Structure formats: C-alpha cells, structure tokens
C-alpha cells in the first residue's frame, strides 16, 4: 500500500470519471457521424496510453465535443476510412511539436480567439443537435443549420415521432440542469449518466418511437487505415484538415491543462510533455481508425473534484471503459439518440462564454469584437478558416495597438512651431503623421522633436525626411528635426538643413 498511498482516492475518482465519460464518448461519436464504439476506443486510449504518460497529472483525455464539428466535416468530405489517416498524421505533428518544444507557445494564442472558437463550436453543435433530437436531417453548413431551425420546429410539430424525440432530448437537458440542485449524495451519480439512464428507461417502459444507437461491436469498428486511405494524402484539401486537427486539438488540450492546474495544488503541467502525450494518443487512435482525442475539461474537473491525487485515476477510468466496451456493448443499443443529442446541446451551451463576452465588452471592446468575429466566421465558413480569421484579426489589432502614436503641436504665436511625436511611429500611422505635418504653415520655422519615440521605422523616417526637405518656403528657416541618439534605442535620423 505504501507504493500507492492514494489508491483509495484514485480508485473512487476513476469510477466517477468513467461514469461521466461513457455518455460523452458515445454522444460525441454519434454526433461526429461515426460508430458509437469509436468514441469508447478513443476514451480507452486516452486513459491507458495518454494517461500513463507525463505532462499533466490529473487531466483526462478522450473524444471532445469541441472537435465534433471538425470531425463531422472531415468524415462528410473524405469518408470514415480516411479519418484514421487524418488523426494519425495529426498525432505525428503533435509529437513533432512536443519534441521541438513548441507546446508552451500555444499559451501565446489570443484568449479572445480561443473563446471565440469555443463559442462558434458551441453554436454549431447546438444547432446541429436540435435536428438530431427531433430525428431530422441537419443542413450541412453552420448558417444553414441556424436558418433552418424555424422550419425544423414547424416540421416537428406535425409529426408525433419528432415531437416524442424532441421531448426525450429536452427532458435529458432538464435532468442535467436540475441534477445539480439535488442533494450531494444523489449527485454522486453524474447528471449526464442519470439523464441517459432515465431517457433509456422511459423509452423502454413506454415503447416510445425513438431511434437508438446502432451497435457494431468493438472489434467490428476498429479498422486501421489501408492503402486507399493513405492515398487521400495526395489531395491538398486533406492537409488543411490535418493541420486543423493538430492545432485545434493541441490548443484545446493545453488550455484545458492551464484550467485544470488552477483547480488543484499538485504538480504543474509540463506543456511540451503533455503535447507529446497527446500526440502519442492521437497517433494510436489514428492507427485504430478512431476519433481524435484532446484533454477534456469536463472529465478533468470531475477527476479533480472527485479527489484524485495521481494519474492512476485516469488510467483506471480507461480500464473501466475497456471492460464496459468489451462486456456490455449491447447496452449501447438501448440508448435513445435524442438523449445523446440533449447531452451535446448542453455541452455546446457550456462552450459559449457568455460571462467572458460581457467582461470583454465592458473593458476591452476590441477583444470582444475578435471573439464575436471568430465565432461568426466558424458558423459561416468552417472551423479552420474561422480560427485563421480570428488569429489574423488578433494580429492586426496587436499591430495597430503597437503603433500607438501621439502628435502634439505647440504654437505660441511667435517663434517656431514645436511638434512633439511620442510612441511608435510605424507605417500604420504614417497617414496620420503626414496629415498633421502637412497642415502646418510653410512660412513659419518648425521644430520636430522625435525624442519621445520608442520606435521609428524606415517608412516613417524616409517620409519625415522628405517632408522636412520640401516643406519650408524659400525665405523661411528649414525644418529642424531632433531625435534621440542611436545608442539610446532609437533609429537615427539626419537633420534637414
């Protein structure tokens, strides 16, 4: 027992994480358009392989709702057979990034872009799973899903089966939300699991006409990618999806690690090692033809709150998932699909950062705008391009703020007009600088003081020299430009005479 001083706590926590993981693994797989068992395979690999590796000690990995949209798009475009190749190469890219020590750089990604990504994913998940809850086929695009919702509700009102299915989905969401208000002893059973069990019992007891999970068996769904699947790598389009998988899965995992670190006092995450662990897990998932994995904040926080002390809890949760998938696969066939849709609608709602949007809007409207544009772009276009748009906007905003410049003109009526420039003079601010200088009278002496500049780029320096040479009238003293010495960290600029 001395070798495993926390075995009792870790064992208890592993049961809780297992119970949280089962409905989420299955729900994410179904929503991604792949067999339900593949979600369990990814959860098993996340526990037994990634769970054993160094990185973050209490973080739990598995299939994530945040990748559902991307996986569904990939399966729709390239087919289930190609999914293994995509996940395999993405895992190898993660391994390379980990060994090259790029992991910590993911912490430099704009928080607004990450929150916007989660918001956009959440909106697409909610819209798509409402159709699934009603047993209807969802439009392919994010905009189509949102615009088509009124028509979908109208169709559902005319169908008893659709209304029954929607009721199961709505009831699942209600149980998950209300479960947290019940006594702590009752909450020992996770709300999502309780909701699925109640929905399953209700559909069986009343013989409700709702679709249930299709079961193929664990060994039946594991299909390593073949030569034909690897042939897809000749298509340039698939590489964009691979890069999106690698980057977004890595970002989700490392941001989750930062959040989990705030929940406990144990060892801190080693980001590059966590990247390697995620890469190893995804490489194996790819070889098995399973879903991609990320660290999942819901399972990780449940692990911490259940009292886990070491990585043993997440490894054991993988063992329980394996035993469940091997011994009770037929139990999956009893689960109503609208119940899983309800779980994912609730998960999508939790991804939307309402509080963060409000806080950013009050204090940093520019950051709030980046968040909103990223979310809207993901809904309107797709996840990968939406994130790229958000990142481009964040870089542009940073560049604009970095070029902050203050121009102060002092005219005492007699003597030279004094112009003070302070801040960063870059090409982004050049029109403003020239507008201010060209508005000065040509028949008065002018002194331009650049000593307050932190940076003067080549474009601004050249433009100032040209203006200084041409501005003064023939019978007026030339413009005098003074600047800090080069050794003080400023670019030298010759004085016009």
Automatic annotation (TrEMBL):
Residues 7-374 form the SLC26A/SulP transporter domain. Keywords: Membrane, Transmembrane, Transmembrane helix. Residues 487-497 have a biased composition (Basic and acidic residues). It comes from the Bacteria. It is a multi-pass membrane protein. Residues 469-497 are annotated as: Disordered. Signal peptide: none annotated. The chain crosses the membrane at residues 12-31, 78-100, 112-136, 156-179, 191-211, 237-260, 319-349, 369-396. The keyword Transmembrane helix applies. GO terms for cellular component: membrane. Its main location: membrane. It is found in: Membrane. One of its GO terms (biological process) is transmembrane transport. Pfam families: Sulfate_transp (PF00916). This is Sulfate transporter.
